[in-house]
UniProtKB/TrEMBL annotation:
This is Transporter substrate-binding domain-containing protein. The lineage of its organism: Bacteria, Pseudomonadati, Pseudomonadota, Betaproteobacteria, Burkholderiales. InterPro entries: Solute-binding_3/MltF_N. It comes from the Bacteria. PANTHER family: PERIPLASMIC SUBSTRATE BINDING PROTEIN FAMILY 3 (PTHR38834), SOLUTE-BINDING PROTEIN FAMILY 3_N-TERMINAL DOMAIN-CONTAINING PROTEIN (PTHR38834:SF3). Residues 26-237 form the Solute-binding protein family 3/N-terminal domain. Residues 1-20 form the signal peptide. Gene3D superfamilies: Periplasmic binding protein-like II (3.40.190.10). It comes from Duganella radicis.
Length: 242
């Protein structure tokens, strides 16, 4: 009987451990970083990096595509949940455990090609209407510094607002290798005007994720950087038509 009890306890412990290693990973629709393909499978530059990371560490996971604010909030409030691609800012530092960086980004102001206002520094944007996304780090950054922000629920609404003169600027995060952040039809109508900040982006995990899992993921990511896996994924999406 004692042996049976011990065996059952061991099995229960293993089940709990296996469950602890399963991650619910959230992200937003933001091509070419993360998006759903025609078959419904979530793919993209950042997504492929996350999938490779999970495979290398043997981590059970599922990825869910959500509006950014909800994706971020779930990682903050729900156990065993992570979100990508998340800018690591001082305001967010204590909210998550961090895996990365998985990429770098420039925060840029984009405007209409026919804009008529000067923009030589971030201070020149103080009197302008700036399109952001609810819950996004760019929104937090500009709002906390007293800028006039007009937040949308989906970042890709902002270029349309820009073309309709409902905003003057669009605060955009440009990942490495991304030439234009919107629909190709807008490429000659919306142009980059100013880089106002640079950040690194991460897989941000709820504090409930064990430290040993975070350490394992960071070690695997460092290996991916050394063996060229991250660079190979980047090159794939840097190619025209990708």
């Amino acid at each position: 009987m004692r042996l049976i009890i011990s065996t059952l306890f061991l099995l229960a412990t293993c089940v709990r451990a296996a469950g602890a290693a399963s991650l619910h990973i959230t992200t937003e629709h933001l091509p070419p970083s993360s998006m759903a393909g025609a078959d419904g499978v979530i793919t993209g530059r950042a997504t492929e990096k996350i999938r490779e990371l999970m495979v290398r560490t043997g981590t059970d996971y599922k990825i869910e595509l959500l509006p950014w604010k909800r994706a971020l909030l779930m990682a903050q409030t729900q156990g065993q949940t992570c979100v990508y691609s998340t800018s690591r800012t001082p305001e967010r530092e204590a909210l998550f455990k961090w895996v990365g960086p998985t990429d770098e980004a420039e925060w840029q102001f984009w405007g209409r090609a026919d804009h008529r206002f000067p923009l030589n520094s971030i201070d020149d944007a103080r009197k302008l209407r700036i399109g952001t996304t609810i819950g996004d780090a760019r929104d937090d950054y500009l709002r906390s510094r007293g800028f006039h922000v007009d937040a949308a629920t989906n970042d890709l609404v902002n270029p349309q607002k820009l073309l309709l003169n409902r905003i003057d600027l669009w605060a955009v995060a440009i990942r490495n290798g991304v030439a234009f952040p919107g629909h190709p039809d807008w490429a000659d109508k919306i142009v980059p005007l100013l880089v106002f900040h640079r950040v690194k982006v991460y897989l941000a995990c709820n504090p409930s994720v064990p430290d040993e899992v975070i350490d394992k993921l960071n070690a695997a990511l460092a290996e991916m950087r050394r063996d060229g896996a991250l660079a190979r994924i980047d090159r794939k999406y840097d190619q025209p038509g990708k």
